[in-house]
Structures are given as structure tokens and as C-alpha cells.
Amino acid sequence: MGFTKLVRSNAFKPIPNFVRSSLRIACVESDQNTESPYKPRKHHILATNLIISYFEKGLVEEARSLFDEMPERDVVAWTAMIKGYASSIHNARAWECFREMMRQGTNPNEFTLSSVLTSCRDMKVLAYGRLVHGVVIKLGMEGSIYVDNALMNMYATCSATMDAACLIFRFIKVKNEVTWTTLITGFTHLGDGIGGLKMYKQMLLENEDVTPHCITIAVKASASIDSVTTGKQIHSSVVKRGFHSNLPVMNSILDLYCRCGYLTEAKRYFHEMVDRDLITWNTLISELERSDSSEALLMFQRFESQQGFVPNCYTFTSLVAACANIAALNCGQQLHGRIYRRGFNKNVELANALIDMYAKCGDVPDSERVFAEIADRRNLVSWTSMMIGYGSHGYGAEAVELFDEMVSVGIRPDRIVFMAVLSACRHAGLVERGLKYFNAMESEYGIEPDRDIYNCVVDLLGRAGRIGEAYELVETMPFKPDESTWGAILGACKAHKHTGLISRLAASRVMELKPRMMGTYVMLSYIYAAERKWGDYARVRKMMRMMGNKKEAGVSWILVENQVCSFAVSDKACPCAVSVYSVLGLVIEETREADFCLVQEAGT
């Protein structure tokens, strides 16, 4: 393998000087005198160093070509290839390289095994990981901390339980911080936050060194089980250990308060933070989008005033969702313009948020336009968002057509998609089409309808006046009907003035459930009044008064000078309430005078 062939590469320039010098020396006879300060190295060592350099530069194919030309390949060269493939996310090639190495009779070392186990973990192929585990046992490398940690990580990621990972953990004699962090992370990612916190507590009891990364995982475990009490304890230990200046740790604690619904604490903690990055701002804006969308938009204005911070796709996704929540179309359009200027318009998740925002603001044509712009990148959420938009505005035929088109391009619908198309059929009165989709869920796609799907179909039949069929469906449901189910039956009976046996049965069943929704009591009173059952009517009305049930007030939003203001009936919380009601009084007087004049003109 000559020097010229090794250094020839169109994409990898320049070759490091130490590599060039070593390669030149390798071509000189060993007995020849030289003044070079570099010590000669063997060819396979030089080639291995160059392979590592290629992988660091992302030149995977060049690394493979050089590896194939090597006449001698030791375990270090094989390990360099396997580790390089794994770090470049070419996990399948890493696995094939490991198999080739074993076939040629080269035994792996601990670094080879840890690298290939990393690839098995990333591929989430448990069978491959078990084969490597067998090699580990065969070669007697169970005691290597690198191998044991990699095995734990692989089992924690690829298995449905933590049993295998815990078994390996128990046999590790000398554990390090990576060992503990791997186990805590495994429990947390499997959704067992309690198990993760138990291991974190055990780690503290054994006086092990706690790293910032380990604390971050423990905080995530607390957030996953909504345990703000444990999170506050960890927060105190963070301050005690001097990690309060570690930004990833601080961000995880902010996320804990947000996820657990402690918004006041989250905002206070945010303002106390000395350092903030984009993740910090995104975390708070995302939580405000769910709890107070107007404040999320105001927070973004503060964000823009900060030097050095540039919003990313995640920021804009939260902001667009905030505009959708309060139907702030003008603000959403301005954000859409910024998204285009920053080149984020090709991001599918952001496009999905825009589709939903325009639909919720009543601008279906713009939803269709955004949907058309991502024709080659649509995912299941894209189709679902557009279908929900059509359905909520009564475009049932368009939603049905979109569903059929989605299926024709090979995208398999899930339960949420079926809920969207069935809701569209319900609002548009497409009963037969809706029943067709309902029957196809289990027969064609193997999806069992849940309670919400059944309630939707009951409402679909009830709205069409097919109350008998709706009641039969309720009786055949695989689970006990709830208040919403009987409420749909009662609503259909009220709408179609049905006062027969079904309305009485539905009324008795819903009373047995002790309904909590105000609308259910109202429909019951209407049913009893229609049947002239004044005693039952009075009893329902009395129950409503005794329980203190009040219908949820409708809220409206208005955009004034780029600020969203909300108001309800008899709302006096507005700072300008006196002026508003004064102007409203003048409008009422003007209306009365206008009506009086019209009456006089009609009389003459």
C-alpha cells in the first residue's frame, strides 16, 4: 500500500503533518539514517490512525476503502471501523463489520464489544445484543466496566422490562457514575419514574459521585410521575452540590415545574436564572401555550429583545399553537411570514401546526394552501390536522375525500384519524359513510374502537334521527356507557322530539350515573317537560340548584393593537370596564331610538 494511494482523496485535505511524516518514513529502509523527529510506525497503525481521521471528518466511504486495502488488520483496526460506523449512525454496517471480524477469527476486545453493543442499542434489535452478550461470556469479559455498562444500556433500551439490565447491574462489583446513570435512565425512559428515583436514592445512600447528567435524569423521572415534592428535594440538592450554574440541570428543573403545572414557581424560577439558552425560553413558552396562550405571545416579545437568541422550529410551533388556542389569526399570519423568512417553511411539524391554526381561526383556504405546500413530505399528523379542520367547519365530503386519498397513497390510519373522519361525517350528516369507516376499523385495520369512537357513532346516528339504531349500538358496546354516551342519546331525543321508551330509559340510566355536566341536566329537564312529567322536571331543576352547577361561560377574544383581550358576559375584570360599559350603554340607547323611529314609520 503506497504513500500516494493513501493520501489521495478529493474530499480530505489537508492530511495532518504527523501522518504525512510518518508515511514518508515508512517508505524508507529501516537502516537508513533520518533527521525527522517523528518515530516510524508500522503500516497498519498508520492506516488505523488515518481511518479514525476519516470518520471524524465524516468520510465513511474513504475509511472503508482504506480498510479494505490493509494487508494486516488487528483488533484495533476492526474496532476503529466498528466504532466509526456506530458514531456515524451506520449501525447496520457496524454489525456486519463485527460479523466479518468474527468470521476471520479476530477476537474482539472490550472496546470492540462496547461499540457494537451501542449499535445494537441504536438499532433496537435485542436478538443482536444477546448474540454479543454470548460472545462476552465466551471470552470471559463480564467483569469489564465498559462492556457491562454497554450491556446494561442495550437491555434497558431494547427490552420491555428492566429485569435483564438489573441482573447485570447486580453482578457489577465496582460501579461508576455511568453505571448508575444508565440504570436510572433506563427506568425513566420505560415510563417507570418511581423505579428511576429508587435507584437514584440508592445511589445517594451508597455515597456515589453524582454528576449533573444523573441529576437531570432524576429530575425527568420526577416530572414523569408529577412528583413536584421529589423534584423540589432534588432542586435543593442541586444548590447544595453547587450545580445551580449548570444550565442543562437548571433547564430540567424548569421543565419539571412546567410539566407538574406549577406555573407560578416556574416563572419565578425562570426570572431567577442567571443564564438562559434557547431551551430555557422554549420550555417556558411551551408551558404558557398550554395554560395562558396570550402570555406565551408576550413572552416571545421579551425573547426577541434578548441579544443572541434566535427562535427555532420548536419555538414557532408553540407560538403558532398559542395563536390557534385564542383564534388570533392576524398574529398567526405574522408568525407565518417570519417562518418563511427564516426558511422553516419546509419543516413538517411546523406546517402541521400552521394547518391546525388556520383551521381553528376559520381560514380553511389557507390551511389547504399550507397542506398543498408539503405534498411530498406529509405525515399522518398532516392528514389528520387537515381532516379535523374540514370536519370542524362542516366540510364532511372534503374530509371523506381526503381520508380516501390518504389511504390510496399508502398511509395507514390510526384511531385518531378515524375519530377525525367520523366527526366530520357526524357534522355533515354522512351517516352511511361514517358507518362504513366504523366497520372498517376492526375488519380492515385491526383497530378496536374505544369509548370515544363509540360515542361519536352514537351521536352520528342520533343526529340523523336513527335513535333506535343508536340505542342498539349502546347496548352492544364492549364497555359500560358513560355520561357522554347517554347524553348523545338524550340530545337526539330532544332534537327529534322523541318521547318514547328510549328517552325514558336513557333518562333513568343517566340519572344512575349522577351526571356532572350541566348540559346533561338541561337535556333531562327538557325531556321531562316534553313528557309533562313535572315532578321529575322539578326534581332535576332542584338538583341543579343544590349542586350549584353553572353552565360554563362562553369566552370571546379580540385583538387590539397586537394584544389579545378576552371577555365574557358581565365581565368587569377589564381595566377599562367602566369606559366599555359606558360606550355599550350609548349603543343600546341609539338602538332603542332607531327601533322607536322604525315603529313610528311603520305606524304612519
In short:
The chain has 604 residues and is mostly helical.
Structure overview:
The structure is a single chain. With 604 residues, this protein is an all-alpha fold. Among the domains are: 152 residues, Tetratricopeptide repeat domain (Serine Threonine Protein Phosphatase 5, Tetratricopeptide repeat, Alpha Horseshoe); 46 residues, no CATH class. 70% of the residues lie in helices and 2% in strands. It contains 33 helices and two strands. A two-stranded antiparallel sheet has the order 1-2. A hairpin with a 2-residue loop joins strand 1 and strand 2. The longest helix is centred in the C-terminal third of the chain and has 27 residues. 37% of the residues are buried. The N terminus is likely disordered. It comes from Brassica campestris (Field mustard). Keywords: Repeat.
How would the blueprint of this fold be written?
Elements: H1 3-7, H2 17-26, H3 43-56, H4 60-69, H5 75-87, H6 91-103, H7 110-123, H8 126-139, H9 145-158, H10 163-171, H11 177-189, H12 193-205, H13 212-224, H14 228-241, H15 247-259, H16 263-272, H17 278-291, H18 293-305, H19 313-325, H20 329-341, H21 348-360, H22 364-373, H23 380-392, H24 396-408, H25 415-428, H26 431-445, H27 451-463, H28 467-475, H29 483-495, H30 501-512, H31 518-530, H32 534-547, E1 555-560, E2 563-568, H33 577-603
Antiparallel strand pairs: 1-2
Family: Belongs to the PPR family. PCMP-E subfamily.
Pfam families: E_motif, PPR, PPR_1, PPR_2
InterPro entries: E_motif, PPR_At4g14850-like_plant, PPR_rpt, TPR-like_helical_dom_sf
